[in-house]
Every structure is written in structure tokens, then in C-alpha cells.
Design a protein that fits this description.
The complex is a heterodimer of chains A (about 525) and B (about 325). By secondary structure, chain A is of the alpha+beta class. Chain A contains 16 helices and 19 strands. In chain A, strands 11, 12, 13, 14, 15, 16 and 17 form a seven-stranded mixed sheet that branches. Chain A has a four-stranded mixed sheet with strand order 1-10-9-8, with no helix packed on it. Classes of the chains: A alpha+beta (about 525), B mainly alpha (about 325).
Chain lengths: ~525, ~325
Amino acid sequence: MSRPRPLRPLLTLPLLSVLLLTAPLPAQTPKYGGVLVTSPLSATPSLSPHEESTIATVQQASPCFNNLLYFDPARKQESADTLIPELAEKWSWQDSYRNLVFLLRRDVKWHDGKPFTSQDVKYTFDTVRGAPDARAKLKVNPRKLWYENVEAIEAPDPYTVVFRLKHPQPSLLLMLASGYSSVYPAHVPLAELKNRCVGTGPFKLKDNKPGELVEYVRNPDYFVKGRPYLDGIKFVVIRDRSTQIAALQSGQLDVAGSGWNKTNAENARAGAPKLVIVEADSNVNDNVLINFKRAPFTDARVRRAINLALDRKAYLVGPRQGAATFGGALLPKPAGVWGLPAAEVAKLPGMGDPGQQKADARKLLAEAGFGPGNPLKLTVSTRALAIYVDTASWMVDQLQQVGIEATLEQIETGVWHPKMTRLEYQVALNLTGIGIDDPDAQLFENYHCGSQRNFSGYCSEAIDRLMVQQSQTLDPARRLALVNEIDRKLQADGARPILGWAKQYYVRWPAVKNWAVHDNSIYNVSRRQDVWLDK
Amino acid sequence: MRAYVCQRLLIAGVTLLGMSLLLFVLMRLAPGNITDVIFESAGYVDEADRHRLEAELGVDRPVIVQYTRWLADLGRGDLGKSYRYDLPAWEVIRPRLPVTVELAVLSLVFSVLLGVPTGVISAVRRGRPLDYALRVLSLAGLSMPSFWLGMIVILLLVRSLGLIPSMTYVSPFDDLRANLFQFLLPALAVGYRSSALIMRITRSAMLEVLREDYIRTAWAKGQREGSVVWRHALKNASLPVVTLIGIEFAFLIGGLVVTETVFNLPGVARYLVDAIQFRDYPIVQNLAMLIAVVVVLANLAVDLLYSWLDPRITYGGA
């Protein structure tokens, strides 16, 4: 006979309550229907992702296309472990990672009804890599560099594709999963794809008014059964930020926030308290370009002085309003995969005691021959956009605090990158968004000797060799160690000092479900086939 | 009269030719060209690809060759291709024209309906409280930028009623009510500023005319106030008002950039600014020329109206 326990009911009730409260809520059953209306960052120059480098194109073209594989929208951090199949059912590395073999789905049709085959994949990536026998040539080819290691692409049968590599490159899979790596139809001329999207994706183009509107309807033949949930998506270009906020508050937009800062998001919610703010990290960084090819910035002491003068904590509370994280050349953990450990980040130039660092900066400048009688005079160039100018103005102030006579130069946005490519500046404040959180994408594009996007002119053969070495390293732990080693050297050399990694803000109505946001990329999460409206 | 019109059209042609040259040269003086802008959006510059693209678009040729080719194409009615969107320029411009024309016409109608009567009343009631009230109202209209007024109206509507005009263009042929709601607020915002101008010009012109002998005679003959003011005085005071309305209409066709932006109306003015930013030469040149044609024709129409309003004015012995 058991002993009576008079307190048991009293203990059981609260315990049950706690269990009930903490138990996961049953997932809501998605509803079909409705048209989601959103506002992209800006008008897209075209609907052809391979020819553009702006998130605006990825946002507005992704619902139309598919990749061979994609990053799982439901997982916040993109990595090799979060890849999911799209047009490829399976893939495998063969011949000691020299061949990447994709087995394709057999039930896929283009929006015009034609069947999708391996020829489409071969055509797309032969075009992008600029293969000598490619059937088409892109007018502008921003990501040719990604596929330099591809020796040949073969299509042995309609549903098999083989990428033959010059040497192993684990990053290739991630590059193929990027929002910029859509598969194009071989039977539609490239020029037509700029304004008439023919894809295999969850949504078919209904209307494209360049500069104003891109509208999609549900693709009833989409190969993923039961998707998409929405009847359509409408991208309405609203140039004025205040109008965007008003449109969201009035319910004309279901979700907005591309390019918004924290203040914009909070202003929107202040007028409509039911709005939900989604905050996430991003792989967009504020970086300082110091022209390595122009005196006196050829002097390492001058470069280090500039780097030390820029107090990162002041940057965080000033221009970034508390919405950024610190790091090196790669996005730090926990949002990123490849960044330096927090303990090392805390010791980077600009992260220490501001008074001490500014004193060190003055000392270095004096050693380089600059002081009160002979101040270093320089121009800080930046793009004439508010998000750039705010930080550049802050930079000018910081540099003046160590006796540098800095002035601000705003460069018209239409000629910003050409000027940077030609190194027509002294010191500049730049924003860089990286397509994927991956060392190959970041390092080769922005730090490799001779790269078209190496805007500071930094060049180190030793670092280049390390870049190649890490690119071919298959063991992730060993690769991370190599990447960290490169990052340390880049920071020590003052090659494109990173001020911080910006956070992103999306604001949506509660009825918008499954609007996924990733922590380490803004570029690879715009398919929107899982989004539904609880209306 | 016919000789006068022909003469004016000839002068208009010369003006437009001068305008085309100025426009063409100014666009080429701005730093960077379309290929810079194309590579700007790509985030890098490949010099070989850039040269190839320059040759393809013809922007590597001498400016004089480009200019004469553009004029020849224009003469044939060929507006060229938008460099940015790779579409025929007319295809890009055409859907934007009705938006701007509707906004300009509605704004003008509103400004005339408000500006002329208030100007007349203010002149007739000169020095009285109503005059002061109307003058304050007009001064407020002149002081407030129309885009600011528009933004305030949008914010007030959102806060109080939770609604704003549609963010996508609604054609009057699809839904007249929604179209009018979409255009009403921007037309009121723009029209209020124009009405303030019209009111002030009407008032000063009326004050001058009301002092004329023939008006005094009309009063002395015992004519009713309505007849004296609206029939005799206003018609004779309307020359400067009509001039102003003509100028305002021309301004409204090309000058609604910020209002179109705030109300998200896909009109030509906003698009022209985009095209300038992207060095889309065919769009900029052809749109600016279109605006120039409207300005020239509006001025011609105003001049021709003069003779109808004031029979004392004759042209070329007509």
C-alpha cells in the first residue's frame, strides 16, 4: 500500500501548467491563396540574376527561378549542412572531389511548357563561366570568377550533369546554391530574359513594368507538390522611405524593410503596433578602403594609424545605432561560419581603449612624418547614399581627432564602383555584400591580387597562396584554421579594415507566415514558395 | 494669323534644335556613361567588356556622330532603345505619359478652380478680413512645398483612417473611383501651390483693372456686381493669369518629380530623374525633348489665346 501524498495534486497542477505553457505550440496549418505585396530594395535593372549584383534583382527574380540546389529557408544559418535539393535530386563528389555529379529531376517544366533537361544546366553555367564554346555570352558577367575552377561541364544524358573541376573546391556547391545561380532555359535568348522571366520556379511572371512593378502568379505545374501557398507575389517599387512605411502601416504592403535600419523599423511599428519586427545579422559589412597604390598610404604605419583612429564602439552607437556586430574579413560566429573567434575580434585594431588607440595612431603618424606642423591631409570618398554618407561623416570626425585633416567627398552612385575599380580615391568608405558566407567568395573577390573587386589594390602573394590552399581543403576544421590565419594577416596588414557587419530589419504583418530571413546572407532566401498568408 | 503661327512654329523648331544640342552636350559632360553605370550595378568593371559594350551601344563614337544619328532617328520617329532596360524607348515612356498628364491636368484644374475665384474675391474685398484670410491662405500655399504637404496628408490619412492611395497605378479605364482617389491627393497638394500663385496674380491684375475707367463707367451705369466683376473685369485681367497657367502646365509636365515619388505615381518626371541617374541617354534625351515640346506648344497656345481674350491684340496684320 502506498503512502498517502496529500501534496501531490498541489504539485502536479503547477507542473502541468508549466509543461503546457512551455510545450511547442502545434504548427499552424498553412493556408492557400492570397497575393503577398512587398516592396524590394529598389527597382531591378533586369530580371536576369546572372547579369546583376544587387539584392533588388535577387529579391524580384528568385520566385521565378530554381537552382540546382538551394539553402534551406527554414535554417537561419547557411552552410554546407543546410543545402537542399531543387532541380537536382541528388549530387555527389567523385574522383577525389574532381567531379561533381548532379542527378536531375525528371518532372520539371519551364514556364512556357518546355521540359527541363541537363542541357539547360550546361548552357547556363557554360555561359556564366565564359566557356569558349558557350552558345551565349553575358553582356556583364559579375560572377565569372566563381566558376574559374570549372574545367568542363558535361551532360551525358538528359538528367545527369557533371562539373569537371581543375582541383577540388568544396565551395562550388555553395556558389551553385546562391540566389545568383539560377538555371536559365537554353531555348530562350539571354536578351529576352532581362525583361521576360522564363523559369521553373514556384511563380510565373504576370507583369513586369520596369522600374515600377514585378508581379507573379502561382505556377500550377511547380514540381514541388503543394507549393507555393500564395496565389501570387507583387513587388511594388516605392522609392520614398516614408511612403514605404505609410504603405506598410496602411496594410498596402504585407512586408517591407529591405534596406531599412532599426529606426525605420521602429517608426513603422510605432504607427501600427501589431507589426512584427524581424532582426537578423547579415553578410553586409562597412569597410574602409585605403589605397595601397597611392602615397602616403603605401606606408604601413599610415594605414595602421587610420585603422586605429576609427573607434569601432563609437561606430556601433553612432552611424549603426547599435545594429551591427564586429568581425574581421568573414562574418563572425554565431551568425557566420568562418569568422574569427570573439576573443580575437576583441583585439583587432580599433576595438581597444579609444584614448590609447588614438594616442598610438598619433605616434604612428609622427613616425611617418606627419604631425601638427605637417598634418596628413586626405579625402574620404563615399557613395552619395545616406547609408554610406552617415558612416563616412563619422569617419572624417574620427580621423580629425588624431590630427588628420580629412574632408568628405560624395561620389555619385552611378560611377562609384568604376572609380573604386580604377583606384581613383585616397581613403573610402564602402559597403560590401557577399553573395554567400564562404571564404572563396569573399577572399578571392575582394583580396586576391588583380581581382576586379579588390578595390584597395592590396596584394600579397603569400596570402594568395593560402587562399588557394584553403579553397582546396576538404576537412572543414582544417579549412577554418587556414581561413582564420588569412583573416588575421589581412587585419594585421590593414587590408580593407572592417568596421562592422550590419544587421537587417524586416517588418511584417502577423498574417505573413514563413517569411524566412537568414543570418549570414540576404541573397539566398527569396524563393518564397513556403510563404503563406493567415488571412 | 496663319503667317504668325508659321513664324512661331519656325521659331519653336529652332528653339527645340538648340535645346536638343544643349541637352545632348550636357548629358555627355556629366561624369561616367551608361557602361560605367551598367558595371556599377554589377559591382565591378571589366575594361574589355566595357569597351565591347560601348561599341555595341555606339557611345564610343564622336559626339557629333551620335548627335546627328539621334536627330536622324528622331526625324524618323525612332526613339531608340533604353540602354538600361533593353526595351524600345517608346515602350518604356508610353505607359508613363497618361500618369503625368492626368496629374498635371487635375492639379491645374484644381488650381484654377481655387486660385481664380479667391483672387477675384480678394481683389473685390480688398482690405477686408476676407481679403487678409485669403492672402494668408495663398501665402501658406506658396510656403509649403507640395511634396511636404503630400507627405503630411499621407501620414494624417494613415494615422486617422488607416488608408492611403494605391501604391500601384490604377487606370481610370479599370477603376475610375480608385483612380480619382489615387490622384486626388497629389493633385490637391500640387494644385494648392499653383492656386496660390494664380490667386496672387489674379488679385493684382484684378486690382489694376478695377481701377480702370470702363469699370467705373459700368458701376455708374448701375450694372450688377457679378456682371462688372466676372464679365468685364475678369476677362480683361485674365491675360497674365492665362500666361501663368500656361507656364504652370509646362512646369507640371516635367516638374512633378518629388510628388510622383512621394505618392509612388509612375510618371515621366520621376522616370526622367532615374534615367539621368542611369545615363540612359535615349530616355533622357527623348523625354526632355518631349517636355520641351510641351513647353513650346503651351506658350504658343497661350499667345494665341491672347487675341481671343483681348481683341485689341492682333498678330502679323491678321
